[in-house]
Amino acid sequence: MKRWPWLFAVVLAAMGLSGVLAVQVTDAAFTSHSASHLSITADQVQNWLHLYSQSTDPDGLSGYATRVPSGEPAATGLDETLVVDLGTTKPGNTTWNRVFTAATPRALPVGSEINVTVDVLPDPATGQQPVREIGFSPIGSGSSFTNPITMSAQTKVQLNLKVQPRDRGVTYRVTIRLTMTYPGFEGSYYQYFVPLAVARD
Q1: Which of 26, 91, 147, 158 has the most CB atoms lying inside 10 A of its own CB?
Q2: Of 46, 28, 1, nearest in space to 192 by CA
Q3: In whole angstroms, how large is the CA radius of gyration of the chain?
Q4: Which residues contact 88 (CB under 8 A, 6 or more apart)?
Q5: What is the pairing mode between strands 149-152 and 190-200?
Q6: How far apart are CA 142 and CA 158, in angstroms?
Q7: Would the pLDDT of 43 be above 90?
Q8: Tens-place pLDDT, residues 76-129
Q9: 3-state class of 143 per DSSP?
Q10: What is the Cα–Cα distance from 114 to 34, expressed in whole angstroms?
């Protein structure tokens, strides 16, 4: 009968030790997860890449694509407020150079370069996508369509596109999607969504 208190004490000690180990393991996992979560949510695409129109270009760059027939810059705003209205085009393919520009900061948060891919989501009303070509080129280099593109810190490129709206009198409202990643990146990617409108004469 005297052995029961001793056995009870051993059981209690074992339970206490396992409880401490469980708390330590759980805390380590939680700390690791929390640090990763905070790192992702505190970051923004603007820390890596900016989008500019002529009116918001910090370098005062001109020569941006213009809306037809008004002649005003087709793009307005910057970053997540950027929108594009190309106006009304003639039948056939029409090319716009420097619709907007994309630029990296003086220093990237991680690594030495980023990769940017651009594609176009179709007009939800018609299901059509009038953009035939889209991509990037160095500033002032003309109508090339590099896609995807690799950018290092303090780099600026222009976005060019070629459109061919099919139906006369229809305004197509599509979305330009820019997706940014960097080598070795794990987790959610960074994206911009730029509304674009264009009609055919």
Answers
A1: 158
A2: 46
A3: 27
A4: 68, 69, 198, 199, 200, 201
A5: unpaired
A6: 9
A7: no
A8: 999 999 999 999 998 899 999 999 999 999 999 999 999 999 999 999 999 999
A9: coil
A10: 25
Residue 105 corresponds to which tokens in the numbers above? 């900061």
Which tokens is 39 given?
Answer: 């790192």
What confidence tier does 142 reach under pLDDT thresholds 50, 70, 90?
confident
The secondary structure of residue 102, as a DSSP letter, is: E
Kindly provide the residue ranges of all beta strands, DSSP E only, lying in the chain, ordered along the sequence. 50-52, 75-76, 83-89, 94-103, 113-121, 131-138, 149-152, 156-163, 171-181, 190-200
| pTM assigned to the model | 0.78
Q: For residue 148, with 0-12 CB atoms within 10 Å meaning exposed, 13-18 middle and 19 or more buried, which class applies? A: middle
Question: Strand pairing partners for 135?
Answer: 160
H/E run at residue 12: helix 3-42
- Whether the Cβ atoms of residue 23 and residue 16 lie closer than 8 Å to each other: no
